[in-house]
Amino acid sequence: MKDQHIINMGKIVFSLCCLLGNICLFGYLFTKNGDFAIYGFILLVFATFLNLLIIIILFIYSVLYETRSEACVKAIGILMLNIPIAVIYALIGLNLN
Description:
single chain, 97 residues, mainly alpha, elongated
């Protein structure tokens, strides 16, 4: 896998999780439909496992192919940007009534 493909994979997964989180959060804020909150929680659990799985795979790949380790670390860093965003969204969701 080329370095740019590795980094793009991290960007795509980050963007997808962030976009779906935005849809759930703002869908609930604008409509007050509880389904958005439920799907947001399900997304939080699913995206956590997905991101962790991809981070583990990238870590193993970087150990096996040391020439690609810099790209893997960049992709892992991009994926880890989801953590503070997810925490903020979870706090917002938990504090809304």
